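Hi F.,

I've been meaning to write this up properly since the lab meeting, where we talked about keeping a consistent format for the predictions we share between groups. The idea is simple: the sequence comes first, exactly as it goes in, then the structure tokens exactly as they come out, then a line or two of notes. No screenshots and no reformatting. I'm using this chain as the first example so we have something concrete to point to.
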Amino acid sequence: MAQIAEDYVSPSVRWGVLKQDYPEAVAEFSEMTGAELGIPEKFGGKDDYCVAQILLRPTDELPIVGYKPLSDAKSNKNDHPSDAWNVLCTKALGRALKRAGYADTAGEMKLIVTYKQRLAEHEAIRSGDEAQVANDSVPMPKTPEPSILPPPENTNPIASPAGVVTEAQADPEPVPVKAAPEPLTESDDWADDDAMKKAHAELKLRVTSLPEDYAERARQAHEKLNKRQWPILKVSQFNAVYNIVESLHTEAVADAEPDF
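Output, unedited:
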């Protein structure tokens, strides 16, 4: 069997990311022949396939297509026949998502997410500049300049030792200037201890619900990532481990490695 990537991202996670970008996206599943899909006869054109079709918008005319041969379906003991079909749908969806640009590894997905964050930041900056230009075009009332008046007559002079008459005056206090706020920076730390504890409890539950051989593979991946640090202090490392565990759940259900 092909070796699954340690930072593999399951189709369900990638579908959730796509739905954030395209809230109206829909996925449909059907059975088609290879000939209907345009597959040449010598490459499986006579075979039957489970087909996933994604429409990103209701107005899209051409769907994004992914497919998986029906011959790859596997049923375990006590499984309902529909379980094998659900596994094929998941694999076909994974292929369609990859064609839509939603990669199946955390490293590639991170690049996509970072790129979209930068686009959003640039858009916010452009919007801020336009608002500033609009504000600059509005004339602001001028602050009147203070007039210089002669000092009032000294009605209570104080004689200095040298005999010179002076007036006691207080030095003006300097006006405090507030420092500019520091720019916000991205953080890889947990928001608080409570969030970290809840996330780790869920991760532990997901690992213990895996078959033992798959749970051991999850532990090996954790060991390779950060020597099985617990709790995992960096959010990015936690997400990498969690994605591996989710992919192992998908693999355990299918009883075969995904080959998206």
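Notes:
Residues 157-168, 177-185 have pLDDT under 50 and may be disordered.
Residues 11-117+189-254 form one domain.

If this format works for you, I'll send the rest the same way.

G.
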